[in-house]
Amino acid sequence: MNAPTRLRTEHLPEAMGLAISEPRLSWTPPAGTLGQTAYRITASNGWDTGRQESAVCAVPYDGPTLGSRSRFEWRVRTWNIGENGSDTASGWSEPMPVELGLLHATDWTARWIGPDEPEVPAPGRRPGYALTKTFSLHTAPERARAYATARGIYELFINGNRVGDQQLTPGSTSYNTTLQVQAYDITGLLREGSNTVRAVLTDGWYRGTFGYTRDADMYGTHTAFLAQLELESGAGRQVIGTDSSWLVSATEIVSADLMGGQQVDFRKHDGGRAPSAGSPPTVRPAVVRPGNAAALTGPLAPPTRVTKELAPVSITRLPSGHQVVDFGQNIHGWVRLAKPGLPGETVTLEYGEALGQDGDVTRDHLRPHDFRAPGAFLDAGQVDAVTASGSPNEVFEPRHTTHGFQYVSVQGLAADLQPGDITGCLVRTDLERIGTFRCSDERLNKFHDIVEWSFLDNSCEVPTDCPQREKAGWTGDWQLFVPTAAYLYDVTGFSRKWLRDVRADQWDSGVIANISPSPGPAVTSAEFMGFTNGSAGWGDAIVMVPWEVYLASGDAGILAENWDAMNRWLGFVRASAQTQRHPSRASQPPAPHEQYLWDTGFHFGEWMEPGGPEPDLFAARSADHGIVATAFYRHTTHLMGRIAAVLGLAAEAAELAELSANIRDAWETEYLDDAGLVTRASQANCVRALAFDLVSPEHRAAVTTQLVDLVRAAGTHLGTGFLATPYLLPVLAGNGEQGLAYELLTQDTEPSWLAMVNRGATTVWELWNGIDAAGTAHQSLNHYSKGAVVSFLHRYTAGLRQAPGSAGWERVIIGPRPGGGITSASTSHQGPRGLLSVAWSLGAAAAGEPAGVEPADDGVLTLTADIPPGTTAEVLLPGAPAAVVGPGHHTFRAATGTNNAYPELMRSIP
Ligand code: RAM
Q1: I want to staple 261 with a disulfide (CB 3.0 to 4.6 A). Which of 90, 234, 384, 463 is the partner?
Q2: Are residues 569 and 639 in the same domain?
Q3: Distance between CA atoms of 711 and 721, rounded to whole angstroms?
Q4: Among the atoms of ligand 1, which is closest to the Cα of residue 532?
Q5: 3-state DSSP call for residue 774?
Q6: Digit-coded pLDDT (tens) for 98-154
Q7: Helical ranges in 379-525 per DSSP H
Q8: What is the mean pLDDT of residues 695-719?
Q9: Which residues line ligand 1 (CB under 6 A)?
Q10: What span, in angstroms and rounded, lies between the C-alpha atoms of 675 and 698?
């Protein structure tokens, strides 16, 4: 029998160790019905909602009070309207287990411990330590849990077996405020008699080198580990916590650093055995470390895992002796080397995204500027090394570092590598894929694939800009990509976790830090980090990201969680606009509209426009980016007005709407000339004017023409950088220039998306000329930002988008906009109510077909759509009247138009 599926707790498919005592539960109603009329939840702890007459598919837990360690399973059944109008009960869903972690500081008897380091080695060269405890059990426990976290990265082993399959634990958060605790079921790992628990601890994000600036010790100078094992058996309860009775010993990890790489000497491996206190000189007692202010909490996002393994597509031995392994795909993670070499032989692995002239891996394009020594560059890092001991079954897998790479240069290995000896491991947050796209143009399919890969490679713990040079949670990058990501993957929990850090990192002034997690300007390279924060389009992530996640999930709780932080950000922007003037304007008496111009402070601006000068942050400090910043001031205010309305804050909504209208008028007054043209003519500024609704209706046509002229003047090439690229094609298509939108989409000379495909990209480049015509690599080859254009493929080419005013895909528009010679397209999205899908194809018009449609055009479009329960779809086909349909499978036919006879146009971003 049909039953609800996809049960989620706090939006997570796995709910182990949650630290939320009233978690939100949600489900997808059974497919094949018209909609849900009632639900009933029962739980193993006795909670039973009884039948509730309601169409909602998400409710807060409301059963017996939950506390630390509470465990229950819940399941749900629904009543649904069938095709014939009947109200029938579904079967019960599969149960979803939920277990809470330790909710209170008083639950912890364990103490923080760490290695005694009389002299801390230099950053990037610090070893891994083992923290070990042996204990004896009279009987194997019936139920056992381990709760663990670290200031550093830890791996936990019990009796030589690795606990769980999570990677890079405790994960990346803003460690000054938040540390995640992992909860593990270890029942099966313990036995009667002697047991050994062992943690391997390295620097990680806590004190390793990190980001573009390679700052170290960002959160502290000493690593620490905290764990509590709780065992229950007939004999009672036993707790084994970290304390001074644990022993510290050296490990085979000679050094491990997230940027630098990991060096392992297996000759130093202790075999995972328990060291004894008397085994000098390397074994000594752990030191107890003080706790800090960070809250210990459970997961908000799915865990990080190895989610895919890749075999090499080629292995080439160069004259130098190096063996270059090509995985055929740029990924984030590490390799697993099954044959590390002969005893005593040190094998070095250099990871990179590109090959140099000599056919070997080059990392030159990934070297950051050294802000401490202008003109100099830092090392790119990404180098592992392993020395084999000769023991059988030695496998090298550097799980305390990560790299962005397609190629690995294996150096110092005498033996010829065989394909089975080396495996590429993709390491990322284990997000569920919920969206697809395909069309008849294979080049666009390939581009869609590389965009998806860039996201997979930049979704480890937090949304990152790139997986090699920085690995940093840049706010602007996620702001502009989250609409695309949320269509293809369930990023609800992932974004919530990151937003918690963004809020924690917000400055007292309301400024949103450029990067989260980050410890703030007092710690990191003050010059660089200090003045660049507060940039338009980056800080606005605190508004734009929650809004997009709300639209995707329908969960207004995400808006409520971030509302205060949004207001503080807006407060900063508003005060900047009201009280400061750019020097170029400051001398004149201010016109009334100038109080709404945000033209001071540092701004990255459009950032990375093709053909532009090399970015110079210090010069940008004094530039006037008012045209960009005021646009974002307007957009953020406009969105916040809508958010206030969703949250039921009517007075705030009205006030924000008025402010937003004033900013809009000010933008128009300042940045449109008498002919109604944008004064700082660039594609990006014109796109923003149209996308953010900055110009009056009577000026839209002129600004559109200006944009078209700029595109044509560039030889029908795009000229946008980071911020405007996602809006370029929707704006063209929505303002009567659909043909040009497709010309740009299918343009394949530089700069263009398809130039990347033609030059062999497997991920999206940071620069339009990431690999130039001569084959030379420039900057990162794995930045998803320019890939946000694939939303156009989903929303316009295939034609599935959410209706304005809808959240959680309750109301959708099916409105394909064929073009670019594409003859078929399909897309699907698993929304909160179920699977939405659209597929269309073009065929020649047969005589008399389709009935009722003028056969005046070049063919017939046949479209099928699946609409889930409780959802309505407005179908907008060329030349046909709009139709509204409900749940079920539908087929439509329409004559295609060669013109823009589409009833609904995207005029500005909803
Ligand atoms: C680069 C990052 C990122 C961008 C910032 C402004 O260093 O890679 O993508 O947001 O600069």
Answers
A1: 384
A2: yes
A3: 14
A4: 6
A5: coil
A6: 999 999 999 999 999 999 998 999 999 999 999 999 999 999 999 999 999 999 999
A7: 442-457, 475-488, 492-505
A8: 98
A9: 212, 465-466, 470, 474, 476-477, 604, 607, 783
A10: 11
SS (H, E, C) 113-132: EECCCCCCCCCCCCCCEEEE
E-strand stretches of 290-391: 295-297, 304-310, 314-317, 323-337, 346-352, 354-355, 361-362, 383-387
Task: Please choose, from the candidates 887, 885, 880, 888, the residue with its C-alpha nearest in 3D space to the C-alpha of residue 904.
Answer: 880
Residue 745 lies in a domain: no
Find the CATH number of the domain harbouring 45: 2.60.40.10
| Shortest-distance atom of ligand 1 to CA 474 | 10
Q: What is the mean pLDDT of residues 626-654?
A: 98
886 near 860, Cβ under 8 Å? no
Residue 715 falls inside a structural domain? no
Tell me the CATH number at 191: 2.60.120.260
Looking at the structure, do residues 67 and 175 belong to the same domain, yes or no? no
Nearest Cα neighbor of 870 from 908, 833, 827, 825 is: 833
Angle (CA) 659-664-665 rounded to 5° is 100
**28 is a domain residue:** yes
**What are φ and ψ of residue 774, in 5° steps?**
-85, 0
CA nearest ligand 1 atom 9, residue: 465
User: Do 497 and 641 lie in a common domain?
Assistant: yes
Task: Give yes or no: residues 120 and 250 share one domain.
Answer: yes
Same domain, 351 and 372: yes
User: Please, which pLDDT band fits residue 85 given cuts at 50, 70 and 90?
Assistant: confident
Q: What is the mean pLDDT of the chain?
A: 93
**pLDDT of 703 above 80:** yes
With the most atoms of ligand 1 within 8 angstroms of its CB, the residue from 378, 474, 481, 785 to mutate is 474
Per-residue pLDDT reduced to its tens digit, 423-473: 999 999 999 999 999 999 999 999 999 999 999 999 999 999 999 999 999
322 pLDDT higher than 90: yes
- Picking from 613, 639, 671, the residue at the C-terminal end of a domain is 671
> 376, 398, 429: which is the final residue of a domain?
429
Residue in 745, 749, 831, 842 with CA at minimum distance from that of residue 796: 745
Q: Do 280 and 418 lie in a common domain?
A: no
Tell whether the model's pLDDT for residue 274 goes beyond 60. no
The reply to whether 318 and 197 lie within a common domain is: no
pLDDT band per the 50, 70, 90 thresholds, residue 906: very low
Query: Cα separation of 413 and 383, whole Å?
Result: 15
Q: What CATH number does the domain containing 573 carry?
A: 1.50.10.10
Which is more confident, 585 or 510? Answer: 510
Is the pLDDT at 156 greater than 90, yes or no? yes
In 588-654, the DSSP E strands lie at none
At residue 272, the pLDDT reads 52
- Which pLDDT belongs to residue 859? 78
- With contact defined as beta carbons under 8 Å apart, do 886 and 872 qualify? yes
Domain region containing 852: 800-905
CB-CB contact of 398 with 334 (8 Å): yes
Return the closest-CA partner of residue 835 out of 891, 889, 893, 877. 889
**CB-based burial label for 292 (10 Å; 0-12, 13-18, 19+):** middle
Per-residue pLDDT for 715 more than 50?
yes
Residue 727 · residue 795 · CB < 8 Å: no
Q: Is residue 446 part of a domain?
A: no
Q: List all residues 6 or more positions away from 522 whose beta carbon is below 8 Å from its beta carbon.
A: none
Measured in whole angstroms, how far is the alpha carbon of residue 261 from the centre of its chain?
23
Q: How far is CA 311 from the centre of its chain?
A: 25
- For ligand 1, atom 3, name the residue with the nearest CA: 465
Number of folded domains that form the chain: 5
Pocket test for ligand 1, best of 607, 617, 765 (most atoms within 8 A of CB): 607
Indicate whether this model's pTM tops 0.90: yes
Ligand 1 mean position to 801 CA, how many Å? 29
Mean pLDDT of 766-782: 96
Q: How far is the CA of 882 from the centre of ligand 1 (A)?
A: 43
